[in-house]
Design a protein that fits this description.
204 residues, mainly alpha, 80% helix, 0% strand
Length: 204
């Protein structure tokens, strides 16, 4: 087991020392992977953790913000471009969007409260929320600006967790490393969204 973790450390070290071209390629693959996952409503937290393992907590945080922004923008413009076809051809999708729009707790404005409530949903990846806003009349610039602000803190925590996770594995503290990672994932998947929702509803 110890040899396996040494191999993992060597692998990441080689990627980090591979020069600008290698780092750029890794960055592109990381962002592209998150975009693909976001398009299909798949969880993206693993990429945020991986960026911390590859680039460290600070640069990894910037990568996370960039990845989330590109992914959110992609789903937004896909929905803005093709959303009308979903509305006209799929009655169940149309009913779902009408139900969301009629809910007083949910609106598609680029306000802080609206974004907070959507981030408080633990079942839909934050990067996939662009689909919902693309169906609305929301302006892209204020929407994406506020979205960027809201992903800075989670992006930093995930990157820091990934960096710390790798360090603990290298030191041979396997149980501690996985336990720490599981706690952080649970917190940001369920506890953090719950706190956001609580904060948002208390400041109506």
């Amino acid at each position: 087991m110890e040899e396996l973790f040494k191999e993992i450390f060597l692998f990441f070290s080689l990627m980090q020392e591979g020069g600008f071209e290698s780092i750029f390629l890794i960055l592109v693959l990381l962002i592209f992977s998150q975009v693909v996952f976001s398009v299909f409503f798949l969880p993206c937290s693993q990429f945020s953790i991986l960026s911390g393992m590859l680039f460290g907590p600070l640069i990894g945080s910037c990568v996370n913000v960039l990845s989330s922004t590109i992914s959110f923008s992609t789903t937004f413009f896909i929905s803005r471009k093709f959303g009308y076809k979903l509305k006209s051809n799929f009655k169940y999708f149309n009913k779902f969007s009408e139900k969301l729009s009629s809910n007083k707790m949910v609106n598609f404005s680029p306000s802080w409260q609206s974004l907070l409530l959507f981030y408080a949903n633990p079942f839909v990846p934050g990067s996939s929320m662009g689909y919902f806003y693309g169906l609305s009349d929301s302006k892209f610039i204020p929407l994406i600006a506020r979205s960027i602000v809201l992903v800075i803190f989670p992006g930093f925590v995930y990157a820091s967790a990934g960096s710390e996770f790798l360090e603990q594995l290298i030191e041979g503290k396997v149980l501690y490393a996985f336990l720490m990672l599981i706690i952080i994932l649970i917190f940001f998947r369920y506890t953090y969204p719950f706190l956001l929702k609580k904060f948002s509803t208390n400041h109506e």
